[in-house]
Design a protein that fits this description.
Blueprint: E1 4-5, E2 14-15, E3 37-39, H1 40-54, E4 61-65, E5 68-73, H2 76-100, H3 107-120
Parallel strand pairs: 3-4
Antiparallel strand pairs: 1-2, 4-5
Amino acid sequence: MNSSIAPEDGGPRYSNRPFDEPYSGQKECRIKLSEQVKPISYLKAHAPAIIRTLKDNPQPVVITLHGEAKAILQDVGQYEETQETLALLKVLALTNRQLEEGKTHPAGESFARIRKRLADSPS
């Protein structure tokens, strides 16, 4: 049975539909944060179920306080993947900036410098 929970501040009502029920038209790779918004009172009452479901549900959960988004709950594996993706995007942006600034060297020259550094470093 689906019911709604009204936050303590009298703000908008939220569905307490179980997290493992699929949304109509839900796709694995698509994240719609608006469908995973829960008040902190829901988190307090259902924390174990939310934590268990995070592993199987690819969508993070937005936690609100007084109707305002304050935190995101996300599976740790997805968090690590997000951090790796951000790191790669930063490297890509830095590489593009260096290309635009003309800070490039021929590959053979770069590898020769690396080999020299390795040969000169104490083992």
